[in-house]
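// run 5 | inverse folding | seed 20
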């Protein structure tokens, strides 16, 4: 696991009119082709991936590859 640089600029993935602290996901792009992700509820826990993997994920979102995770029949932590 890579150390999280202290000088990252975090961008919150939330609707423009969102109020409060979320829960939201935040993303930051760092040196060495690294991408950092964290949740606003636990900003000390950071997941690191590569720019290549992040771009593949973002393209999948746009293409609707993850739509089955949204909506009334989406899987939940409870099963």
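// decoded
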């Amino acid at each position: 696991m890579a150390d999280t640089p202290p000088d990252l600029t975090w961008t919150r993935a939330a609707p423009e009119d969102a109020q409060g602290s979320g829960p939201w996901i935040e993303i930051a792009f760092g040196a060495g082709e690294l991408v950092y992700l964290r949740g606003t509820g636990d900003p000390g826990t950071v997941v690191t991936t590569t720019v290549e993997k992040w771009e593949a994920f973002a393209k999948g979102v746009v293409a609707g590859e993850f739509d089955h995770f949204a909506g009334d029949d989406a899987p939940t932590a409870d099963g």
